[in-house]
Design brief:
The chain has helices at residues 13-25, 33-36, 43-53, 69-85; strands spanning 4-7, 30-31, 56-61, 90-94, 110-111. Helix 4 (69-85) links the parallel strand 3 (56-61) and strand 4 (90-94). The chain contains 4 helices and 5 strands. By secondary structure, it is of the alpha/beta class. 38% of the residues lie in helices and 16% in strands. A 5-stranded parallel β-sheet has the order 2-1-3-4-5, sandwiched between helices.
């Protein structure tokens, strides 16, 4: 079971790939689409399974991700799962300055824009 689902824009793939590798090196299982979705599998189905199985959903925030329809659907699905379970699931990670979505503004986020290894 993946511990952290990485919700991100494909335009931020290089940064997110490194983040996933760093998490794995620290012993934290990461769900990254290119690692988890095999050729021929249904992408929305596999993403749905990943969201349901993950303990946390890291929303990787950047100008690209806040305008991505996929990212929007992923974190909003997690938002409702969080409301149902009453436990924190969404972890906002800022990799580049952007306008944070309204429903995420009241949350503390990790600003890793200057130091991604922190």
């Amino acid at each position: 079971m993946s511990v952290i689902f990485l919700s991100h824009s494909s335009r931020d793939k290089a940064v997110v790939r490194q983040l996933a590798t760093d998490l794995e090196s620290a012993g934290i299982s990461a769900w990254l689409d290119e690692w988890e979705i095999r050729i021929g599998e249904c992408i929305p189905t596999r993403i749905g399974e990943g969201l349901q199985e993950a303990r946390f959903i890291a929303v990787v925030l950047s100008p690209h991700s806040v305008t991505s329809g996929w990212v929007d659907r992923e974190w909003k699905a997690a938002y409702w799962l969080e409301a149902e379970t009453k436990r924190i699931q969404i972890l906002p990670l800022l990799i580049e300055h952007c306008e944070i979505p309204l429903l995420l503004r009241g949350r503390k986020y990790a600003d890793i824009s200057a130091n991604r290894t922190a």
